Amino acid sequence: TTKTFDVVVVGAGPAGSAAALEVARAGYSVALVERGPFPGAKNVYGGVVYGRILDELVPRWWERMPVQRWVTRRATMVMTPTQALTLDFRTQDWGKPPYNGATAHRADLDSWLAELAVEAGAVLVPSTVVTGLLRDHAGAVVGVRTDRPDGDLTAGVVIACDGVNSFLAKEAGMYRTGHEAEHLTLGVKQTLALPREAIEERFAVSGRDGVDIEMLGCTRGIPGGGFLYTNLDSVSIGVVLGLTGVSKAKTRPEELIAELKRHPAIAPLIKGGEQIEYSAHLIPEGGYRAMPELIGDGMLVAGDAAAMCLAAGIWLEGVNFALGAGMYAGRAAAAALKAGDVSGQGLAGYRTMLERSFVLADHRKLRDLPGLVLSDRMQQNYPGMVCDLVQGLFQVDNPLPKPGLRTLLRRSAKDNGVRWRDLVRDGWTGMRG
Ligand code: FAD
C-alpha cells in the first residue's frame, strides 16, 4: 500500500515543528497536523525561551527568531503576604549573541518554528484535529485519523507532539498509570499592556533587555508559584498551581493573580497595566517518574505529550525540552525509515539520543525535585521561615541586644512549622538537583 506521508507529526508546537523540520531535512515527506487555525493559536506559556538547543537546530537563530526582549536580569522572589526577599541577578553577557534567554509571544514563536519546517519541505495542515490512531492487524501504528472527510493519513512513523494530556499516547497505551492530577499544574496568565518607557524604568532595563522574575510563596499555600516577565510593551504575570491543590482550596486562579498584583513588591511594577490577554493551560510537571513509554511500533512521543516539562515554574525549559525531544524524534524516525525498520526496535535510537542529551539526563537527575517543589514545605513553611529570618537579621530592636543567628534560625523555623529533619532532607534533595 502507498503511504500518504513518510511521517505524520501531530501538533505544531515546538516539539512538532522541530520533529517535522528534522524529518524534512533528512529528505522524507512529512505532514505537520495542527488543530489550531495557525501554529501557536491554541498554545500558552509564561513567555521565556531558554532554548539552547536552538543553537543546534537553527544556526544563528537569534537573527531570525521573533523576540520581544533578551533576558539580562533573572530574579527569584520568596514571599509571604507582607514580605519579599529577592535574589536578583543581571549580566550584560546575556544581551549579546549567542544570548541566553528571550521573551517571545507564543503565536510568533510557534509560527516561526513551523515556518522553518515548511521551508525545509514539511506540509503544514492547520485547522485539523487528529482524532485517533490507525493500526495494522498486529497493532503497529500506521497513521492517524483526522476530523476531515476522507481524513485518514497513513505514514511509516507517527510522532505524537500533541501536548499535555496526550490523547494519542493514551490511546496507544503508553501511559501506564494514567495522567494523575497530582502530576499536573494549571498555569494561568494575564498579559498587561504597559508603555515601553514604563517597563524600562520600573524594571531597570533599556533597549531590548528584559527581565524574568519567578516567585515562591504567592499562592496561598497551594503548591505552585508565580511569574512576571517583560515583553516589549507588555508584561506577563501569572501563577502556576498544583491541580489537586487548587481544586481542594476552592480558590479561583484569577483571585490569586489579583492578589499577586496587589502585593506591595509587585503592584508598583504593573500599575496601570491594562489586560489584553487572559489564558490558561495545563503543565505536566511530574518529571522523570511520570513519563510514559516514549516508543511504540510506528510511533514516538515527544515534548509535553511525554511529560518532558520538568518543574516549568523553576526551570522554564518546557520549550527547550520540547524542541530537543522533537529534534531527536525526527532524527530517529528518519534513521528508522532509512533502515527500513519502523518497529519499536527500529526506532530505539530515539531513547538513546534522549538519554545522552539534556532532555532525559536532566529529568533523571532532577527526578525527586517535582515532589519537593510542589510540597507544602516548599510552598509555605520555607518562604515564611526565610523571610522571617532575614527580617530578624535586618530589624533593629534597641534596646534589646541583637539575637544570634542560631536563635533567629530556631525562632523562624518554629514559627513557620519547619522541622529540622525535613529541612536537612529537602536541602539534600535540593542540592542534588
Ligand atoms: P504544545 O506547545 O502544547 O503543542 C501541542 C500542539 O498540539 C498544540 O499546537 C495543539 O494545538 C496541538 N494538538 C493537540 N492535540 C491535537 C490533535 N488531536 N490534533 C492536532 N493538533 C493537536 N516553557 C518554557 O520553556 N518557558 C516558559 O516560560 C514556560 N512557561 C509556561 C507557563 C504556562 C502557564 C504554561 C502552561 C506552560 C509553560 N511552559 C514554559 C511550558 C511550555 O509551554 C511547554 O512545555 C511547551 O509548549 C511544550 O511544547 P509541545 O510542542 O510539547 O506542546
UniProtKB/TrEMBL annotation:
- By its UniProt entry, which Gene3D superfamilies does this protein fall under? FAD/NAD(P)-binding domain
Q: Where are the transmembrane segments?
A: none
Tell me its cofactors. Answer: FAD
| UniProt GO MF annotations | oxidoreductase activity
| Keyword terms, alphabetized | FAD, Flavoprotein, Oxidoreductase
Q: Where is the FixC-like C-terminal domain?
A: 376-433
The similarity annotation says: Belongs to the ETF-QO/FixC family.
* Protein name (record): FAD-dependent oxidoreductase
